[in-house]
Amino acid sequence: MPVKVKYLILGGGPSGLILAANLLKSGEKSFLILEKENEPGGLCRSREIDHSMLDIGGGHFLDVRNRKVLDFVFGFLPENEWERFDRISKIRTPKFEIDYPYEANIWQLPVDEQIEHLKSISNAGSNIGRRQPEKFSEWITWKLGSVIAHNYMLPYNSKIFSDVRLDKLGTYWLYKLPNVSFEDTLRSCLLNKPCGTLPAHSQFYYPRKYGYGEVFSRIADFIGKDKILLNYSVKTIEVDHLGVNNEIFAEKIITTIPWPELLTSRSIPVEIRRIIRQLRYSSIDITYRSSNQSTNAHWTYFPDENLPYHRLLFRHNFIAGAKGYWEETNSRRVVDGQPCTHHNEYAYPINTRHKPEVILKIMDWAKSFSIFSLGRWGEWEHMNSDVAMNRAINLADHLVSA
């Protein structure tokens, strides 16, 4: 017998779970989540490894700034079950280690290095009024100066986005980078302390006893097993009559799964399938190491292109009683024979130059059939989990009030 619901949610990751929980809180019970894995949580799942939890999708942390998201999350995992941290993250180059953000901590370097960095920043195109370039590598140098660009930003992005050449990346998403003024940098060097804008996650929450996935496990429990269909792959989507696999039908579909997963759906027009094929993404392997590192950092970035991984996360510094750390490595950079604790096929959407217009065409087409796009993969945006949760809350409010 075909199943019919009001809302059919594709994907049981953070976005799908938060959306469903908000629908339920609003009194709406006619919905169903379809999840291809044997457990919900998506990229935010955690598993016990070596007697402590490890986040198999990489590093995820709860920013302290969005009160609406915090109130929602603390309704499932109360605040007293979280630890609040002042972020300690570092950048380790072949020559030195410096606190993140790089530009605010140049004062930690030897004096000769500080002088070279200050000269570079003072000559950066953004500081001397040069026109903003369009190519990614030129933009980074224009924004930060040649020294920071070549020591950190260019090699790091080359590692994390090994799937494309850097100049195929757009610059529209780099608004997150703070302004690097010569004055702030000089002031920090003179005062021996960071000056300027603090980065996202300058403070964050992480569960005291659990992995980050605990909150999504509890949200899934609230939603109920009868509302989450696990081990269910979306093979086709029937656009004209809003169905999935010709088995489950809805008045509205909300998709949080990667668009390339729907390419086999013949009801999607050829032109839209052609556009979907233009979307690019990175795969990431997570590898656990049992030894402790001599560091107080929560995580460290590695722009050194001779090393396969781009980030290490030291769980012994943010999970009480834990040991060890895990590596994040772009799957294209994994050395043959290297052990892998978990492979994430879809890890990071890649912000290619034409992505905004590509994803807008896809989303507009989908919405015309009452298919809504949500989350990192539905919107094809490299968003942190708190941003994804906020958008899910907003979409749920929109749907129930429509």
Automatic annotation (TrEMBL):
It comes from the Bacteria. SUPFAM superfamilies: Nucleotide-binding domain. It comes from Longilinea arvoryzae. This is Protoporphyrinogen oxidase. GO terms for cellular component: cytosol. Pfam families: NAD_binding_8. One of its GO terms (molecular function) is flavin adenine dinucleotide binding.
